[in-house]
Specification:
mainly alpha, 64% helix, elongated
């Protein structure tokens, strides 16, 4: 028994292409981060976590 393919089977590629075009466009309202900002945020977050794990932050806030 042969199975016939419907014409809707080929439409997945066209839908995917439309989504790629939609998500490929950049919005002017979107936030833009430089590499330096990302590196600075990672270093700052890592430092805060390190200091919190070693009790420095609780000691510091205990002074006030």
């Amino acid at each position: 028994m042969a199975v016939k393919k419907s014409k809707k089977d080929g439409s997945g590629i066209q839908q995917a292409a439309g989504l790629i075009r939609y998500f490929d466009e950049e919005s002017e309202d979107a936030w833009h981060f430089t590499k330096g900002q990302v590196y600075a945020a990672c270093i700052l977050l890592s430092t805060v976590i390190y200091l919190a794990n070693h009790g420095v932050l609780s000691w510091f806030f205990g002074i006030f």
